[in-house]
Predict the structure.
Amino acid sequence: MLQHIGEQIRRLRNAHDWTQEQLAQRLNVSRSKVSKWENGEVLPDLQSIIDMSDLFRVSTDFLLGKHPTDEQLLQEVRLAYGTNDMSDEQLSVIRYINEQPELAKRLYALQSLPTHKRKRLEEIVIKMIDEMIEALK
């Protein structure tokens, strides 16, 4: 649970393009506290969870990693990432990744790579998935 909340906080903070310091200021906490949350060292207190829920415009369930219904997930993604352009297929992929924490962690790590390296790895992953799907038919 600690790690999931931390990853959610980091993901949402990055989606808003905020530093840990900027998030800390918005929540009236120290930057080191945000760092400890994101690194899974400590859980945020209840008031901080509620404040983040309001700030990121997501439910506390979303922050805590409870598996929402498709409708709730779609609403959360729209609010968290500021988009209404979400297909059923994209929603299905998001749900699948949410339910596979190790996969989500590794895919999330890809976004920190330089664009040219990330693009090449994405091409390789897509090809591998296509080949696995074909082999399993």
User: Anything to note?
Assistant: Residues 115-136 form the longest helix (22 residues). The mean pLDDT is 82. Residues 2 and 120 are 32 Å apart (CA to CA).
